[in-house]
Amino acid sequence: MSRKPVHLAVYDTYADWETGYATAYLARAGYEIRTVGPSREPVSSIGGLRVQPVCALDDVRPSDSSLLILPGADLWEAGDDLAPFARKAREFLDAGVPVAAICGATAGLAREGLLDDREHTSAVSFYLAATGYGGGERYVDADAVTDRGLITAGPTEPVAFAREIFRLLGVYDGEVLDAWYRLFHDSDAEAYAVLEKAQASG
Asked: What is d(CA 54, CA 9) in angstroms, rounded to the nearest whole number?
């Protein structure tokens, strides 16, 4: 089955550990992962990984994508350099294409007003409150939250973040989704058998 690509935003200081579970297993499920930078110039992650974006943000259209993933980055707190990515997230959501934001990217979406009318989470509630956004009453103290096509998670929850992405895109569901989460979040060895059985029958 042909699927539209998943777009992974990359920018200087992006948190390379926050999206690895999601992108690895999306790729295994047949999704092409396309990196999106501010331009096509190379960027460096917090961990020093040098990445050459496949495409520039201005060239990305929601109609050509299954999902936009926004990782955290020091730059989300350093000024307005990443504001165009928050505006692109609005464009995606307005077009009915989902967005997944983790860590500092949630603050960028808060500043853009995208969390004012959706349930959401982040590192802690007062982190988002510092942005001055209007969605404080909709903050949920949870590992990850999905509301109307927008996934949010805090920096310590890359596995839960991936789980919500898989659920939203239909990569895994039910018992298999639960087993994947238990294996990678809880190191539950019994969950491996469930995944192995699903792969054998799939």
From this structure: 10
For each of the chain's 202 residues, which pLDDT tens digit applies?
469 999 999 999 999 999 999 999 999 999 999 999 999 999 999 999 999 999 999 999 999 999 999 999 999 998 899 999 999 999 999 999 999 999 999 999 999 999 999 999 999 999 999 999 999 999 999 999 999 999 999 999 999 999 999 999 999 989 999 999 999 999 999 999 999 998 887 6
Residue 26 tokens read as: 């999306």
Q: Give pairs for 1-6: CB < 8 Å, separation 24+.
A: 1/30, 3/30, 3/31, 3/32, 3/66, 4/64, 4/65, 4/66, 5/31, 5/32, 5/33, 5/34, 5/64, 5/65, 5/66, 6/31, 6/32, 6/33, 6/34, 6/65, 6/66, 6/67, 6/69
Q: Is the pTM of this model over 0.85?
A: yes
Q: Which of 9, 103, 150, 171 is catalytic?
A: 103
CA distances from 47 to 50, 84, 157, 169 (A): 9, 23, 18, 28
List CB contacts of 168: < 8 A, sequence separation 6 or more.
67, 98, 100, 146, 149, 151
Q: Is 55 a catalytic residue?
A: no
